[in-house]
Design goal:
- There is one protein chain.
- By secondary structure, this protein is of the alpha/beta class.
- The protein has two domains: about 90 residues, no CATH class; about 375 residues, 3 Solenoid (Pectate Lyase C-like), CATH 2.160.20.
- The strands form five sheets. The protein has a twelve-stranded parallel beta sheet, with helices on one face. The protein has a ten-stranded parallel beta sheet with strand order 3-6-9-12-15-18-22-26-30-33, with no helix packed on it.
- Helix 1 runs antiparallel to helix 2 and helix 3 packs antiparallel against helix 4.
- The N terminus is likely disordered.
């Protein structure tokens, strides 16, 4: 089109000149027609570009790495143009980075006791004593770690004796922050029996090789009714790994009010996902902070949390998922939350087939920020419910494959909601942004907030209210008074009081 445009313009000018000689006012009428024609042509081009962008269905932030990769290795001019185009696309799409690092939110681990009697149970004061206590634990026991630093290497810490529903086995710290557990090992706690609870712990992976620190917790096989609450866990590839073994599955778990992050990009080709849930059912992932999970090697694709492997009824509720907080501007793709993840090998699936990766999952009242890819990805996730989530600076919500079906209601999405490869969407009352706007630097949903780039998530002109027909969840546990789109009516309810 660019090659023929100059010739077309030249012929038009010659016709206009001939009219000028024959008719006194022809130049004015001709000029108006030309102007109208140009406007119409530009409008058609704009419409065509919009249709093409929506048909391709790729956000600028996900298109940019492809362009830069395809242009690399050529002559310097082509490589430079590719790099320039890539950076321009990212800037148009992402704009000023969102920064709420200084905000003291009430989500995640807090400096408060868990509410249990610190004087009861078994007291341990060394790494060897903790191993011994775990090996002797019986239903109803409470193992309390005294203040200090505990370093472990070698074999995992086995939690293999069963608790009971009315008598769980609890491992805890009386005062959060008073104990540091350092794991120089592939797996930290390996939980293979039901009714274990872990509370108020601070755990860090300290392996020299990132590939050698896989899991702080491996919850496997018969380890049903597992609970992790108010723990701070850093520097693992999968802080929580949950999967079946020998035909048994660790169902009905709870991961609540934990802070999970990595202090540096993980130099590994192994999966990097702080909560890696495979084949287990009825897990609740609630009120956690999950941030900075960067996979530096291999395919460079990482997730904040996923549930896959033919499990069912996973609930992701009231989490703050911040793909890139301290570790921004890194190559690779980060996805916030996912039902289905990147799919599962049949041998690891609950049904050995994975007809669907997840059945009946719920994603509700989460705040998902600053992801280089989709904020929420549904992959072969049937009968899903996605309700009252806020997504800012992500590639939106992506629902994929004919085995995915989802009902979306009340979501506030700074980007598009997309159906791909035959997936079925039931769209209720949501507020999102067309895909094409991200290509020209428009962010109408982000602009609803006072100044998200500085962490000011107050509404600029009042909450975008919707006619909610039922009570809706709130990100930080309060009551929803106005029923705004997204995860909260008033973000100040998520801030800790001084």
């Amino acid at each position: 089109m660019n090659e023929t445009a100059p010739g077309v313009a030249g012929r038009t000018r010659r016709r206009s000149g001939q009219g000028d000689k024959r008719h006194g006012k022809a130049p004015h009428r001709k000029g108006v027609r030309l102007l109208l024609g140009a406007v119409a042509a530009l409008a058609l081009l704009a419409v065509g570009a919009t249709v093409a962008i929506d048909r391709v269905g790729v956000m600028p932030r996900t298109l940019a790495p492809y362009i830069e990769h395809r242009s690399s290795g050529h002559n310097p001019t082509i490589t430079g143009l590719g790099r320039f185009a890539s950076r321009t696309l990212v800037q148009m799409d992402r704009g000023t980075p969102i920064n709420t690092a200084a905000l003291p939110v009430t989500l995640g681990a807090q400096e408060r006791p868990a509410g249990l009697d610190a004087r009861g149970g078994v007291l341990v004061a060394s790494a060897d004593e903790l191993r011994a206590a775990l090996g002797k634990a019986d239903a109803g026991d409470t193992i309390t770690l005294l203040p200090g630093t505990y370093r472990f290497n070698g074999a995992a810490l086995d939690a293999s004796h069963p608790g009971r529903e009315n008598a769980p086995i609890t491992v805890r710290v009386a005062h959060p922050g008073s104990v540091q557990l350092e794991f120089d090992m592939v797996e930290g706690f390996r939980v293979s029996a039901p009714y274990w609870r872990f509370e108020n712990l601070s755990i860090r992976g300290v392996c020299g090789d990132d590939g050698a620190c896989e899991h702080a917790f491996h919850v496997v096989g018969a380890a049903s009714h597992f609970v992790a609450r108010n723990n701070t866990i850093a520097d693992f590839n999968a802080h929580f790994k949950i999967n079946g073994a020998d035909g048994r599955f660790p169902d009905d778990g709870l991961i609540e009010a934990n802070t999970l992050f990595d202090s540096h990009p993980r130099r590994t080709a192994n999966p990097v996902t702080p909560i890696d849930l495979v084949a287990a059912s009825r897990w609740t992932i609630r009120a956690n902070v999950i941030r900075d999970f960067i996979k530096a090697d291999g395919d460079r694709v990482s997730y904040g949390a996923f549930a896959k492997g033919a499990g069912s009824a996973t609930l992701f509720e009231r989490n703050l998922v911040w793909c890139e907080q301290s570790l921004a501007n890194q190559p690779g793709q980060r996805v916030g939350l996912s039902l289905g993840g990147g799919a599962t090998g049949p041998q690891y699936c609950r049904d050995k087939r994975c007809i669907t990766e997840q059945q009946g999952g719920i994603v509700r009242a989460n705040l998902i920020l600053a992801c280089s890819d989709a904020g929420l990805y549904l992959n072969s996730a049937a009968a899903s419910h996605v309700e009252d989530n806020t997504l800012l600076d992500t590639a939106g919500i992506d629902v994929r494959f004919a085995t995915s079906s989802a009902t979306l209601e009340g979501n506030l999405v700074d980007g598009p909601i997309r159906s791909r490869d035959g997936s079925l969407l039931h769209l209720g009352d949501n507020r999102s942004a067309p895909l094409w706007e991200s290509f020209v630097g428009l962010h109408p949903v982000r602009d609803l907030f006072a100044d998200p780039a500085t962490g000011d998530l107050r509404w600029r002109d009042g909450a975008p209210a919707r006619a909610a027909s039922k009570p809706v969840a709130d990100l930080c546990g309060g009551k929803r008074a106005h029923g705004a789109y997204g995860a909260f009516d008033d973000f100040s309810g998520c801030l800790s009081k001084p």
